[in-house]
Write a structure and sequence with these properties.
The protein is mainly alpha-helical. It folds into 2 domains: 67 residues, no CATH class; 154 residues, E3 ubiquitin-protein ligase SopA (Pectate Lyase C-like, 3 Solenoid). The chain is 47% helix and 2% strand. The protein has 8 helices and 2 strands, in the order H-H-H-H-H-H-H-E-H-E. Strands 1-2 form a two-stranded parallel sheet. 25% of the residues are buried.
Length: 251
Amino acid sequence: MKRKSGTDLRQFTAKLSSSFLSLPLLKRCYYLWLAATKLLLSKVGRACLIVAFFCGVSIWTDETLERTAKGIASNLFGNAESIAIGSAAVVFFLEIPDRKKRDHYEAWQVINSGLGQTGSGGRIQALEDLKKDEVDLEGIAAPRADLSGIDLGGARLKRANFEGTQLDESNLSRADLRGADLSKAFLSGADLSEADLNGANMSRDDLNAGNLNRVNVTNTPFVTVIGLSDEQKQDLIERGAIFYRRIHRRS
């Protein structure tokens, strides 16, 4: 069985080699170039290229090196630690984008797996990490979650679903919340300064005098909102907010 497998492999290799050699020279060069490029772009190929570079530097900078196989081997073994450290450092920096992608993927997994849960479930840290990396959070859904104290200042949260979400003491300053669903949300002590709430649903919210300085509330409906003073209500109306029902104050 092993002999037959070895024979089949040799036949396949010979056939492949024959097919390759029968191609025009330009096509052969093109395919070889594609294979070399693919190898160099792979993690293994890239690592090998970096190690080879540091080996070459080690040999080139050694003025006392004997240009023999024994002398070169002696040089490489003697500088193995330096070559390994330098190569590892370069590989580490080159893999930063890949690690960022993995981190973002894991963060989205945490957010999506917590959908429908009322607790945090690690979503506060996941959302803050994505915001820190300037990831667009448009359409994010975290209804009825406990995100109290979350820092999403300056985040892009257009059309986000925060219906019934606990956002007490949260930082939403300068956040893009256009068209977001914030109905029944708890925003006690939240910082909404300079946030864009254009078209957001703010019905039945608990604002409790949150920071609303320079907030954009054009065409934003406020329905049965509690915690606003008459001055704040008037200021929001002048900014374009629409109040459909009476504003209730806390006793």
